[in-house]
Design brief:
The complex is a heterodimer of chains A (135) and B (397). Chain A has 135 residues and is α/β, with parallel strands linked by helices. Chain A contains 5 helices and 5 strands. Chain A starts with a helix and ends with a strand. Chain B is 16% helix and 52% strand. Chain B has 4 helices and 16 strands. In chain B, α2 runs antiparallel to α3 and α2 runs antiparallel to α4. The chains are: A alpha/beta (135), B alpha+beta (397). At the A-B interface, α4 of A face β1, β2, β3, β5 and β6 of B.
Chain lengths: 135, 397
């Protein structure tokens, strides 16, 4: 019983920290797991599991939501990620996710385009988008 | 290429990019800059590296600095045009189109490129001038000593797959290069070329680690300035040998060994990199040589370890650069006078390797910029001990 209580506490604590949501268009039928999301955001995968083109968008560097996602969702430090993308940019091998200014803009673009995947602060999620993961 | 031709070529390429913009959906500019100050001290009279300032020059801010601007025009349907303009302190900041190529994305996994682009001589050759991407002030000189042949004209086929969390990339390249080769024994550049170049590399990565291996084969162009220079070094010795009993056929045999023209060049390298966000390690090994030539065989490597805390990274490294004579190169020379002549030339251009240890402190004071302090303590044959202190800022935009 003690173990169950501890597990529930741990899960509750985890949820309290899960303040970044990865969102896609409501009509997006692809399946997602953490590895897939990471691969899309690192430019390693360019299509969703349903074969449709994947276009990642993100928030500005100074956004706490983005910093949290980079550290917890992509398992990288901000500078490390910047260096990673610089390698790809200057070898013509990739383009980093387009930066949009706010969670509202992310939701607007995601709602309009089934190819887009974005990140927003969890508290900003509404019915216009579908959450596929939280960090 | 003289300056007028160089600038005119750049002008045409820029015009082409803008002309392409009429029908393009997107044009993107990215850039990088490294502003480095370097101070060298050494035991001997000569500087250990031709591209570093002399000790008497004091603190110099030009030799290691470089500025680059890349334009990418996306023409739609997977077709992109790239140009990368670089002003390099080693070349008095003369603006040069380092890369200019077209790339066509056949699918998510395959692309083909044509034009002038980076030559994957070593693991990080494709972005070796972008200082922001690595923890050092400069990539370890043992491996990245600076070859003019780090760009190539040709065609490349890239593959990119992601399978069960593993990222697998390959590059297959065919092309040619012409340019200058520095001959350290006389401190001069000589025009030469590499024909029939073909290269292959494979990189496998997962989460926090990657391994890379590659090989390049090419054939030295014939009748170049480099060939003439190499043959000229033995001309007096051959005249002496001919007067003392050597035959013309024996002399021609030695000339053919000394001349790199028509000979095969072989590069092989491998390395690994780990970075879990806190601890970093890197290792690269390469060996290269002109087959059956009087020039040495090069074996180079570095090993580094680093620790990242907050916005700071400290790293230490050990480097080794050796260039040993290829003893079998003179096996076919039977005449004693000519053999001794060949051996003397061989020894004069071999065994001048270096090794040393270095440490770098990197501070990311901005999300796009890093301040670096680097100290290297090395020893080079003939030159003696030397120390290099570098301070600089690397940025990307």
């Amino acid at each position: 019983m003690k173990k169950l209580a501890y597990l529930l506490f741990a899960l509750t604590s985890f949820n309290a920290l899960a303040d970044v949501a990865v969102v896609v268009n409501k009509d997006n039928t692809a399946s997602f797991d953490q590895d897939t999301i990471k691969a899309i955001y690192l430019g390693k995968v360019k299509s969703f599991s349903n074969g449709e083109k994947a276009v990642a968008i993100t928030l500005p560097d100074d956004s706490e939501t983005k910093k949290y996602f980079v550290e917890n969702g992509l398992s990288r430090k901000t500078g490390q990620l910047k260096a990673y993308w610089a390698k790809l940019i200057f070898t013509g091998k990739g383009v980093p996710p387009k930066v949009v200014e706010s969670s509202d803009e992310v939701k607007k673009l995601v709602a309009q385009n089934p190819n887009i995947i974005g990140i927003v602060e969890s508290k900003d999620v509404d019915s216009s988008v579908k959450v596929v993961a939280e960090f | 290429m003289n300056n007028r031709k160089k600038y005119s070529a750049i002008g045409v390429l820029i015009a082409a990019l803008y002309a392409g913009h009429v029908g393009a959906s997107d044009i993107t500019f990215n850039g990088y800059a490294s502003l480095k100050g370097v101070k060298l001290s050494h035991d001997g009279d000569a500087s250990p590296f031709y591209d570093l300032p002399n000790e008497d020059d004091g603190f110099s801010f030009s030799e290691l600095s470089v500025f680059g601007l890349q334009a990418k025009a996306s023409l739609g349907n997977g077709l992109d045009a790239y140009i990368q303009l670089v002003a390099d302190g080693k070349k008095d900041f003369e603006l040069e189109a380092r890369w200019a190529y077209m790339s066509y994305q056949l699918s998510d996994n395959y692309s083909v490129s044509m034009g002038k682009f980076a030559n994957p001589l070593f693991a990080q050759s494709e972005y070796e001038q972008v200082g922001f991407v690595h923890p050092y002030a400069n990539l370890p000189k043992s491996v990245y000593i600076g070859f003019d042949s780090n760009t190539v004209n040709g065609i490349a086929f890239d593959t990119n797959h992601y399978v069960n969390g593993y990222s697998i990339k390959t590059k297959t390249l065919a092309g040619r290069w012409s340019g200058d080769q520095f001959v350290s024994s006389v401190g001069e550049d000589y025009k030469t070329g590499l024909d029939k170049m073909r290269a292959f590399r494979v990189e496998v990565a997962k989460d926090w680690w990657s391994v890379v291996a590659g090989a390049l084969r090419a054939e030295y162009s014939e009748n170049t300035e480099l060939s003439e220079f190499m043959i000229s070094t033995i001309a007096p010795g051959i005249a002496f040998a001919l007067q003392n009993g050597s035959t013309q056929a024996q002399a021609d045999e030695l000339r053919s060994i000394v001349d790199p023209g028509g000979k095969d060049l072989e590069y092989d390298y491998w390395g690994f990199n780990t970075d879990n966000g806190t601890f970093l390690t890197a290792f690269e090994y390469a060996e290269y040589a002109i087959v059956d030539a009087l020039t040495p065989k090069f074996e180079v490597w570095y090993l580094s370890a680093g620790y990242r805390f907050g916005d700071s990274t400290v790293s230490i490294r050990r480097e080794m650069y050796s260039q040993d004579a290829q003893p079998s190169a003179l096996d076919s020379v039977t005449d004693d006078n000519l053999y001794n002549l060949g051996a003397a030339v061989q020894n004069s251009i071999a065994n001048i390797g270096f090794d040393g240890v270095g440490a770098t402190y990197r501070y990311d004071f901005h999300s796009n910029a890093a301040l670096k302090f680097d100290y290297f303590d090395g020893s080079k044959a003939v030159i003696g001990d030397y120390k290099i202190f570098t301070v600089g800022v690397d940025l990307v935009f």
